[in-house]
Amino acid sequence: MKVLKKRPVKKIQREIFSTLMILVSFMTVLIAVFSIWVNLNSERKSLDENLKNIAQAVSQSNIVQTELENSDSPVADITCDYLDTMKQSMSNIDVISLIDKDNLRNYHTNKELINTHYNGTVPDFDTFGYSAYVESSTGPSGSQRRAYAPVYDKDGNYTGFVIAVMLNRNINRIVFNTIFIHIVCTMGVIIFAIILSSILSKRIKENLLGYEPDTFSAMFSIRENILESLEEGIIAVDKDENIIYMNKSAESMMNGSSNIVTDMSLKTTLETGEKSFHIPLHFIKGSDIIADKIPVMENDNIEGALCILRDRTELTRIAEDLSGVRFLVESMRANNHDFTNKLHVILGLIQMGNTQEASEYITNLTSIQQSFIHRIMKNIDDPTICALLIGKYSRSAELNVQFSIEKESCLHRNNISLPSGDLVTIIGNLIENSLDSLNSTSKQPKQLSIGIFTQPHAMIINVDDTGTGIPDEIKDDIFRNGFSTKGDGRGTGLYIVNELIKKYNGTISVESEKDMGTSFTITLTD
Q1: Cα(first)–Cα(last) distance of the chain, in Å?
Q2: Which helix (H) or strand (E) holds 508?
Q3: Band of pLDDT at residue 8, cut at 50, 70 and 90
Q4: Which residues are CB-contacts of 113 (< 8 A; sequence separation ≥ 6)?
Q5: Rounded CA gap, 156 and 358, in Å?
Q6: What is the pTM of this model?
Q7: CA gyration radius, the chain
């Protein structure tokens, strides 16, 4: 039954989104408030400066000066037209008023107030150095910001003053527009931040593979503990050959190695991206190691490499136990069949009354078998190979084949570190191939001989038989996968042998003569 995984709660996504929103909103509002304050102050100063400049420009006009010098006369039309035109050309000026020294309005934007008495604030030019200044006040048009500018005649005598007014309601409209623009910009920034925060939080969530940080951390801790508890050594390097992870088993196996990456030849894996398995590492100080080297790929690019180390001593022991049991069972099966035949011979001799011959027959059989087993146990320092040879000896006896081991045969495990399982495959297939050849002929004698010789990091295996031989026309095909003269479903034994020999940089040679026999010679190195 398929178990549906519970979808992870998007806690981290909400936290990232809310945190970014609070931060962005706070900073945006803070910046907006500061910007509004700066802009309003700048705008107010600009408005005051504009009012003052306009008042000064009017006060220094020859038309205005002439008008106030002749204040006793009615207001000239040219003066009214001049000031009306100036007022209309300036959208940010609401009122212009011209007042003589007797506080009589010679001109006012509101024509009804012309020639009326000015009862507002009288400017104190003495305080401001006889120059224009700006202040807030209240006039016939309401609360306002006004600028005062003195008017002097050609002789420098004070003849009156000019008032330039901007109403507070218009100033407030400018302030509102400024604040509104800032609010709109602030909202735009916040909306943009919402979109970016949503995208960023979603991307972070995807990068975390949909897990929350605490779950991700727990998974990492669990996997770390799993990797540390493995008996296999795990070493990971990046594409620059820097070690980024090594568990305790790897540290123990690599004890004393000064340059781990070089010792393991990971540079080749990083350059080619090719996987390699069961690579023996003789030069590492410490354990006897075999290694698997696997490139780490991302988007078809090599980002690093992983090396899995195994203690060959332990693997060899396990393989020996498994293979040894299998071949001992095969040996027992063959011995049972062979001994059954021999028991029939002994029974017949006893029934015939030839007890002396039966006794000699039993003694002879026991002596031959014990001698063979003793030679194997003495010269072959590998329990798995011993079990194989004993099993094949019994199998040969069952097929009436004389099985022998060359006198100088000797296998020392200190000389060669090839896996027992691979040696069993090679030797077993060669012997089985010879037994098939011998079993297919009636020619006598049927003899099968094997020789195993070792020296440091090298091994020679000879398998000779007196079988049917191999025809010259098929010698080049015998190592091809699926090729066989024995029917369908066969033809893999010698192919496997040849592949293993290539794996260990070995060689195999075949000498054969039809109806005379075949000799296989194999050299292996580790």
Answers
A1: 48
A2: strand 507-513
A3: very low
A4: 97, 105, 140
A5: 163
A6: 0.40
A7: 54
